[in-house]
Design goal:
By secondary structure, this protein is α+β, with helices and mostly antiparallel strands. The protein has 15 helices and 21 strands.
């Protein structure tokens, strides 16, 4: 029966609101009404204390008159003292205008009332309650009979949705801007800035990227001194690795860094002797491999909670997607201008830049040299050792040719076993001397294909603008003919 009464009460209050309070009480003959006010007495209050009722509070602005069983459970008044609830509610009501202060100093009740209040209860999590009530008369004293409905769960859901919405906005900003980032460091700085914006309890943070030998190096940081730029350490000594017991997978909340053992005390921007004490750390994976670790930190212990951990998990998942997209974009951008095998510029890039170089040379009456290079004996290597060995020869030759260019020069793979270069502020004789010096060094160096030594050789030809031609086709054709002549001199009778 008591459970039925409670369910009935909830249904009526939900469906009928303020009017239900009056009608329900009258319906069960708990009160009588005169002059428009509900009249309450001690017998009535005793009945309202029965199990199954919603929390009810009867109070004046200066004191609590009555709390039923449900309200005492809500406020845990057995520990707090029964007067706390009334004073807390009265103060909030007055602050929010639900109670009006009269000129004589006595508070007047604004009835009926309806609203939502946030109650900070000592020793208890914050509660949101919906207040429904009206003015009553209890033994000749005017008071307020208020029904309290705990709507904390509704607010928690709303806050969670708001948090997720904010996180999505933050990650949208990262996604929209990350692809345009020119460097890995700029990308990491953008990610870290947005992570600290999302997790407001964090005051500083860093992103460390995994390098050769599992060495982690700082790629971006906020809130630390600049000395952190040079900081590096093995993966096995990172907070995340130690806290995860060697399995860096999910987000880890480390409430007290001292508990995982000694760690480097890196100066922060918060003053001398102020170091981080807690951290929220997450690994970043791309293509199934550990790419780096993001950590948002605090100079206080126990700074982060479950919601922060959920936020970091959401950020980490989206950061991994954004970073993967950035790396893919960078790879495509690289391949649009560079040769994947040798790391030199590709033919398309060379031809695209030749036009502006030619225009500038014509305008300012400048000259430059075009050189075409061909790897000696590459076909024989491919036929006898395979194309993987041929690729190694091409990489070795490209590495040697790279030493022949200055910052103002341009070297590219032209196709197959050929390379092409533009050289400025030089003439064919001076360029030949520079190239011959490198080729002589190559002739005295033996590399290895597996366990078989080989010698990397290159033949070349040079044409000069404008003496030998005024367009790219003419210059390349003449440089190619001169390169072929040199090859015939080096290898007589070979076609």
């Amino acid at each position: 029966m008591q459970g039925f009464i409670g369910d009935l009460w909830k249904l009526i209050v939900k469906e009928m609101g303020l009017r239900s309070l009056r009608l329900f009480i009258q319906g069960v003959k708990l009160v009588r009404e005169t002059n428009g006010l509900l009249q309450l007495d001690s017998d009535t209050l005793a009945k309202l204390t029965l199990p199954g009722f919603f929390p009810l509070v009867l109070f004046l602005p200066d004191r609590t008159l009555f709390l039923n069983r449900a309200s005492r459970e809500m406020f845990r008044t057995s520990q707090l003292g029964e007067d706390f609830a009334g004073k807390a509610l009265a103060g909030i009501f007055l602050e929010q205008g639900l109670i009006d202060a009269a000129e004589d100093g006595n508070a007047m009740l604004s009835t009926p009332i309806k609203g939502e209040l946030e109650l900070e209860i000592p020793g208890v999590h914050t509660r949101w309650v919906e207040i429904r009530g009206e003015e009553v008369c209890f033994e000749n004293e005017r008071g307020l009979l208020a029904q309290l409905v705990d709507i904390s769960a509704k607010h928690e859901i709303a806050e969670e949705l708001s948090r997720l919405s904010e996180l999505r906005e933050i990650m949208l900003n990262v996604t929209q801007n990350i692809i345009r980032m020119g460097s890995l460091e700029d990308m990491c700085q953008l990610v870290l800035q947005n992570a600290l914006q999302a997790i407001r309890k964090a005051s500083l943070g860093s992103i460390m990227l995994r390098g050769e030998g599992d060495i982690m190096r700082v790629a971006s940081y906020i809130g630390y001194s600049d000395s952190v730029k040079e900081f590096s350490l093995p993966l096995s000594r990172t907070f995340h690795y130690k806290a995860s017991k060697g399995k860096p997978e999910g987000v880890i909340n480390i409430p007290d860094l001292a508990e995982i053992g000694p760690y480097h005390l890196i100066p922060t921007a918060y003053g001398e002797g102020v170091y981080i004490k807690s951290a929220l750390s997450a690994p970043i994976y791309t293509n199934g491999k550990l790419f780096g670790i993001i950590s948002v930190d605090s100079v206080e212990t126990n700074s982060f909670d479950d919601d922060d951990q959920k936020s970091m998990a959401f950020l980490r998942d989206n950061i991994e997607i954004a970073v993967s997209n950035h790396l893919l974009y960078q790879e495509k951008s690289f391949l649009a201008s560079f040769d994947r095998l040798t790391g030199l510029h590709n033919r398309a890039f060379f031809e695209e830049h030749f036009g502006p170089v030619l225009e500038r040379a014509k305008r300012y009456n400048e000259s430059f040299c075009v050189a075409l290079f061909d790897v000696d004996g590459l076909k024989r290597v491919n036929d006898t050792r395979g194309h993987l060995a041929g690729d190694q020869v091409l990489r070795t030759c490209a590495s040697n040719l790279r030493r022949a260019i200055r910052k103002s020069d341009l070297m590219a793979r032209y196709g197959g076993d050929e390379f092409v270069g533009m050289f400025f502020e030089t003439d064919p004789q001076a360029l030949s001397e520079r190239l011959n010096c490198i080729l002589n060094e190559m002739a005295q160096t033996r590399d290895e294909l597996g366990d078989i030594p080989f010698q990397c050789g290159i033949s070349y030809g040079i044409a000069r603008y404008p003496a030998d031609g005024e367009d790219i086709d003419t210059l390349i054709r003449l440089a190619d003919a001169r390169m072929y002549e040199q090859k015939q001199t080096k290898f007589p009778g070979r076609t």
